[in-house]
Design brief:
Layout (H helix, E strand, L loop, with lengths): L9 H13 L10 H24 L6 H10 L6
Length: 78
């Protein structure tokens, strides 16, 4: 997953970086917009390729199965 964050102040940036570092989350700073677009398109195409592979392997859910699941799920306790 990718998230683009534009901080308002240097303090916000420091707090965010400290938070990400504390969780050992990978991030990139000062990424150019053209690189963001390239990364997004690559990620999008990779997701499409993965979905196509899953569909070709027969691993998919059809609309009727989804509707049946929603009909048969438990009702919340009131």
């Amino acid at each position: 997953m990718s998230i683009l964050v534009n901080t308002i102040s240097e303090q916000e940036e420091k707090v965010l970086i400290a938070f990400l570092d504390s969780l050992a989350i990978q991030y990139k700073k000062d990424v150019e917009e053209s690189q963001l677009v390239k990364d997004f398109v690559k990620s999008y195409n990779d997701d499409l390729d993965k979905a196509n592979t899953e569909i070709e392997a027969g691993n998919f859910v059809n609309q009727e199965d989804v509707e049946l699941l929603f009909q048969n799920r438990r009702k919340p306790i009131k």
